[in-house]
Specification:
- By secondary structure, the chain is mainly beta.
- Helix content is about 10%, strand content about 45%.
- The protein is built from 5 helices and 19 strands.
Length: about 425
């Protein structure tokens, strides 16, 4: 409750201050928010608002094509970044606060209709009105080459190198369920037991352009609805460790440099756990992963224009004695601006394959689950995007007697 009040107070104060300096007549909604944002930016505040609505249904196979629970789902979020050099005189410091809310009690259609182990809606979360999911201090050191974050955070794709999302398990073309793929296996690597919105410390170092190394220590027993202090300091000493390194090369082409990113990482989870059929548990679960993306062709030489073709690849390994999903890989393509006059539209196609543990054959009689997803992100207007998607899920949940599922969806996102 204390964190919620802090966020509301910060946002209300910032909004009132910005509104006082930006009294304009006849604003349109987008223009009004833009003018308000400019006023807040002058005060060292950056505020973002967004809402996402997702409609999905299982058209064939899976557990049921008639269940209606979870078809309507979505989320809304508020982001605030405060420049601490402006507010407290701390050069290179910033405070980031992120509050989110979700709806759909069943967390999407997986449970009632599909039965997927991956999750056909990567945005689905337990219903909640407002949760402070992130609140951390970021400090830039050594002329900006070293970044330190302390607080409650989402560790997935939190840092950038050469404009590419990197640590941890970032990907330029398969990393955001709000504008890219919806299936969870095409958002992040499912073999990595990421703590969601956990209290911790993360460090990102870029000693020279195009190369980086990152590491983080996070509370492994976190609850995204809480501050994290109870589980981090008053429960067992279980902390999730992850380290990643990589490089972001550029390859020359007739239309300018083609940006890429190649990442490799390892993780350790000390919590006692086992696969679904295990009769004992194991500690110090350790795995590794790869995440790569590369632009293959640009439509023009404008360095600010992202139109063109890109591809991605992921791989993950986790010990089969302690995990249900032991091996994973995914691959796909993205094309921005495929059709004339639709420069901001994005077409994406991806395939993901996850092999279940050989030791959990009773729970997962099928050896694997896989998914093929195709989406088209259509920009309707500035800040408004509509994305139809199609998913074909093979062997949902690795269960026997459950046929392949065809999931249709429509996502609408509004951002300010």
């Amino acid at each position: 409750m204390t964190m919620r009040l802090m966020v509301v107070s910060l946002l209300l104060g910032a909004t009132l201050a910005g509104a006082e300096e930006n009294r304009l007549e006849g604003w349109q909604p987008v223009g009004r928010m833009s003018a308000l944002g400019e006023g807040l930016a002058e005060q060292g505040l950056d505020v973002g608002l967004g809402m996402t609505y997702i409609y999905q249904f299982n058209a064939r196979g899976g557990l049921s094509t008639h269940a209606r629970r979870g078809r309507h789902a979505g989320s809304y979020d508020v982001e605030l970044t405060a420049d601490m050099a402006r507010w407290l005189g701390v050069d290179g410091g910033s405070l980031y606060v992120h509050a989110e809310g979700w709806w759909s009690r069943s967390q999407g259609i997986d449970g009632p209709s599909v039965g997927s182990a991956f999750g056909v809606n990567g945005d689905a979360m337990p219903r909640d009105a407002l949760v402070v999911t992130e609140m951390y201090w970021e400090q830039r050191l050594l002329d900006g080459t070293l970044l330190l974050r302390i607080g409650k955070m989402d560790p997935t794709g939190g840092f950038e190198c050469h404009g590419r999302p990197v640590a941890f398990d970032g990907n330029a073309y398969a990393n955001d369920e709000l504008c890219q793929f919806l299936n969870g296996a095409l958002v992040n690597n499912p073999t990595i037991p990421f703590p969601d919105y956990a209290l911790g410390v993360a460090v990102h170092w870029e000693p020279w352009p195009g190369f980086y190394a990152s590491g983080a220590v996070l509370d492994a027993q976190n609850d995204h609805r809480e501050t994290g202090f109870r589980t981090a300091f008053h429960d067992e000493d279980y902390y999730f460790y992850i380290a990643e390194t990589g490089f972001t090369p550029q390859f020359e082409s007739s239309n300018g440099p083609l940006q890429g990113a190649y990442r490799v990482g390892v993780w350790n989870d000390p919590q006692p756990k086992g696969h679904a059929d295990a009769v004992r548990t194991y500690r110090d679960d350790t795995g590794l992963y790869l995440s790569c993306d590369q632009m293959l062709a640009k439509e023009n030489a404008d360095p600010e224009d992202a139109q063109g073709l890109g591809m991605f690849f992921r791989y993950g390994y986790a010990p089969s004695r302690a995990n249900d999903l032991a091996r994973f890989w995914s691959i796909g393509l993205q094309y921005q601006g495929l059709f004339e006059g639709r420069d901001e539209d994005v077409l994406g196609a991806g395939y993901a394959h996850g092999a279940f543990s050989d030791h959990a054959a009773a729970t997962y009689p099928q050896d694997y689950e896989s998914v093929l997803e195709v989406y088209y992100n259509l920009q309707v207007a500035e800040g408004i995007n509509v994305t139809p998607s199609l998913q074909y899920v093979s062997h949902p949940g690795g269960a026997s007697g459950v046929s392949d599922a065809v999931v249709l969806g429509l996502r609408t996102q509004v951002t300010f």
